[in-house]
Amino acid sequence: xxxxxxxxxxxxxxxxxxxxxxxxxxxxxxxxxxxxxxxxxxxxxxxxxxxxxxxxxxxxxxxxxxxxxxxxxxxxxxxxxxxxxxxxxxxxxxxxxxxxxxxxxxxxxxxxxxxxxxxxxxxxxxxxxxxxxxxxxxxxxxxxxxxxxxxxxxxxxxxxxxxxxxxxxxxxxxxxxxxxxxxxxxxxxxxxxxxxxxxxxxxxxxxxxxxxxxxxxxxxxxxxxxxxxxxxxxxxxxxxxxxxxxxxxxxxxxxxxxxxxxxxxxxxxxxxxxxxxxxxxxxxxxxxxxxxxxxxxx
Length: 298
What we know:
With 298 residues, this protein is mainly alpha-helical. The protein has a single domain, classed as Up-down Bundle (Cytochrome Bc1 Complex, Chain C), CATH 1.20.810.10. It has helices at residues 13-21, 24-32, 47-66, 76-85, 90-117, 126-148, 153-165, 173-181, 188-219, 238-263, 293-297; strands spanning 36-38, 235-237. It has a two-stranded antiparallel sheet with strand order 1-2. It is elongated, with a radius of gyration of 22 Å.
């Protein structure tokens, strides 16, 4: 059920003046307060909000970490150590960012499977689904490039293996591989390019997320029954009904996330990535992060 006529009414003279020239408060009100959602949404539908929260957290922690990280093959590993040992609360920021990537993918996989289970990819939501797929592909690229930045053994050899796949593309494969590497092997130019792209791509993700939410608000939210909402009596206002449910879901998710950050910060990391990259010593098993294992298995 898409949006209807706006019910927003500015209460002050400044509000009316601003609304007549740039109705941003009206847009926020119509999108996140008065927006009608089906009455029967369950907690599986809270993961969209959880993902928005995790994206914001990843971007904020990433920006601060970038202020202390050195994108140089001779300094990268030590700069991560410096963040952990010398930067105020650096250990917390790094653990939030590294574990946040895993929890971001946990949330996105639940979000995807919910969409598949309830048929959220069906008409009229095809474009919504396509935009979601684009977000996922950008997340994969961002996650892979971020995994290379600590410049540990698994970072280096993972980059070597994954970039090598591009050489299998007919005609242009070698050119694409050299473009990614900045040469013929993983080295300092590779690290610089991956750092730049890892910093840039989240902003692209945020842009596509805005389009994703826009597309959702045009066609309306799906619901567990799979039957389109036709009557206003079958909906409730997004705030406070859906926001309370979203807030509770976020709190539970953040509680689990905090447990990993404070008590199991290295549980999801690979031991070899705590050893500085050595081009002359190949690890016994080169594996990606857990969220890429299905593709690794293929």
